[in-house]
Amino acid sequence: MSVAQDLGAVLDFAEQPLTRLDVFADHIPQEWISTAAALAEKATIRRRRLPCDMVLWLVVGMALFRGEPIVEVARRLNICAEGLANEVLLAKSGLSQARQRLGNQPVEWLFRQCANAWGYERYPQDDWHGLQVFAVDGALFRTPETPQLREHFGSGNTSSNRQTPYPVLRLVALMNARSHIIANAAISPYRKGEIPLAKDFVESIPSHSVTLLDKGFFSADLLLSIQNAEQDRHWMIPERKGTVRTEVEHYGDGDYLVQMKVSPQARKKNPALPEYWQVRAVTYEVEGKEKTVFTSLPASKFSAEQVATLYHERWEIELGFRDIKSSMQDNALTLRSKTVDLVYQELWGLLLAYNVVRREASQAAVAHKRAPSEVSFKFACQHIASHLVVMAGAVSPSHTPRRLEELRGSIGVLFITKRPRPARPRAVKMSKTRYPVNRKAAPLK
């Protein structure tokens, strides 16, 4: 029985004892785990108390129990080959060495394998006029302040003589806007921009889809690489302030075909780009203010009203990032790890854990004929985390009725009835230090 089925059982008030948890096995085939573990950089024939497959789940557990020390996470999840983690205290240094042996490549590989399998799944009532809806956006994470991390990741503002108090790394993700599952992602030091990172996974966007982007991704090279009429692949992005455009054709009220010049810099980087490119511009009013979005969606198939309504779904990826930073990270602004390799490992593990929770929640929603995005991520995350602890510790079945009663008391927050756009800022701005920054930084690989 998966966690999704357990969620369904709780909603149906089924008196089923929670005697097992296959949250990972039901969704991540054992051969994937074995393949990922085999990618560990340092192979050994020694039988360790912490083999690589166990360490993989430790990394995922770190994301689900952000407020707990890593030693406590290992104890809670009974991470040990002999199953003695509750009896024999695991040394913190031993856990750190085990993570270093694993490296970040196996975790990244497992994330990508799962994301590719889950991120493009279609759910009932998932399509928008026959197209899947995706969103692309970026988020920043910061690391502890060490010379090694500062040199590799750089500052959040390297264009001035001041730097942010913590090193910063950048994440750009492709998210299924309906299920909120991350279908692809790229991570790099801060100094690599969002547009180059997004170009790394453009080819993974499926046919019969529309991708919603923030105005920070406004680039003829990027947008034209997404656009493909033969594959019915489209994009949508808000107009950037100061854009120079010429009206070519008038489709209707607030609906035009416009032409823009491709910058010489862009054509120098990619000589295949045309001198001019044409896009559809749709202007609409929100709270008394005019907004304009550019899109490749043809006016012959999609009305201006449909285009304007769809773009509001770009906010779904913001909600996904909020779930990661708020519900999973407990609003902790800084990652735990203190070496470059482990920082990447931790962030890939965080994305993998997020996708596991999201897919379980999606399965539960479908079972109740609801949209996956209607499930409270926070509830689902807490539910899975509590199951991991209970099943790892083999709690007495006599506690099951009490646990079911507690879970039933939380049914009201499982499905979200209304999700207003938050009025508060989405991120805490980091102040800059008054001390000058050392501009010598390792080159991007």
Automatic annotation (TrEMBL):
Residues 20-112 form the Transposase IS4 N-terminal domain. One of its GO terms (molecular function) is DNA binding. GO terms for biological process: DNA transposition. It comes from the Bacteria. It holds the Pfam family DDE_Tnp_1. Residues 129-355 form the Transposase IS4-like domain. PANTHER family: TRANSPOSASE INSG FOR INSERTION SEQUENCE ELEMENT IS4-RELATED (PTHR37529:SF1). This is Transposase.
